[in-house]
Amino acid sequence: MKLEDMIIVPSKDKFRFLSLVSNDDFEFNQFGLDSVMLILKGTEQLGEETQFIKHILREYLAEGQFEYPRVQTEQFSNLAVEVIQKCNLKCKHCYLDDKKANERISLSTFKSLIDQAYDLGASQVSITGGEPFVDKSIFEKVQYARSKDMRVTINTNGVLIDETKAKRLKELRVALLTLTLNGDKQSHEYLYGKETYEPTLNAIKVLKENGLDVNLNFIAYKDNLSQYIPFKSEMKTQFGISKVDAFPVSFDGSARRNLDVMLSPQEKLEHNLPDGCNQSYERGLTCGAGRTMLFVKSNGNVTPCSQLADTNVGNIYEYTLQELINKMEIKR
Ligand SMILES: C[S@@+](CC[C@H](N)C(=O)[O-])C[C@H]1O[C@@H](n2cnc3c(N)ncnc32)[C@H](O)[C@@H]1O
Ligand code: SF4
Fold this sequence. Notes:
- By secondary structure, the protein is α/β, with parallel strands linked by helices.
- It has helices at 30-41, 48-60, 107-119, 138-147, 163-171, 185-192, 197-209, 228-239, 265-270, 321-330; strands spanning 6-10, 14-19, 25-29, 70-71, 78-84, 124-129, 151-156, 176-180, 214-220, 244-248, 293-296, 301-303, 314-315.
């Protein structure tokens, strides 16, 4: 891996070295970063931390490729785009109810969003849906973002991913695919529907075989809660997947009609599951939402983050991303 494929993301007292083309992510304190820079400049220091950094550099830099990585602005870094609302499935818990076939971000609009995000200093685009692989121009969208050296991640149910698509995603050097798998066949299909388990499992297999990084979402409800821990280690053993995040169902969309998929606050507490987001646009945001990230919905409405999907700050067909960020900054 070349250093030019990495980006430095500063936060309060830390720096992350984040890969634009894989899920590699290293964190340094100020001393660590200074040491990296000294090593790159050829004035090495000794010390345990330096040795560790040298090890990383040796592992991850192609010989002679000592170029400085870009430094991410502390402001806007991540644009999340719901490219399409349409989906090939009808999950019991999906927060997107009444998926409208015509709600989609066109290729030209997507390109304009990427151009604006890039000019504002963003280095990452997170693609979601609906189901992104239902979108006919998904590969052109990914290709455009990658042509600007943006780090691309995709959330998908995996059902439409085959060997050919996996190879194309690898060629485009997509950094990460996050698929959803909710334990065994019965538990997964209870939410995702019949004949979805094997295709998703096969997608994980072909993506990993083609050298792509895969994370999993595990949607937790009463009947699969006890599977989470063994499922996590099974995914690690079988596919080398190290990140399987469990999420409870939020009371949105189809879940409002399928109350059996909801966990009680007590159950969430007992199993250490996140209990929604406590941020509010109206009361003023205290996290990075709306500053370091923006979420563009398939109808063009913009929210500070995908967790605050009901908040509408404005629409991309009316405002530029800079204007929308300015609007949100006023709310802090
Ligand atoms: C909207 S989907 C889009 C990507 C893709 N279609 C998929 O299912 O993975 C993104 C993630 O949100 C999860 N999700 C959908 N509705 C939810 C809800 N009401 N509560 C919690 N997670 C939900 C999905 O299970 C999936 O892991
Ligand atoms: S959770 Fe994903 S796969 Fe299921 S209906 Fe919603 S968008 Fe489609």
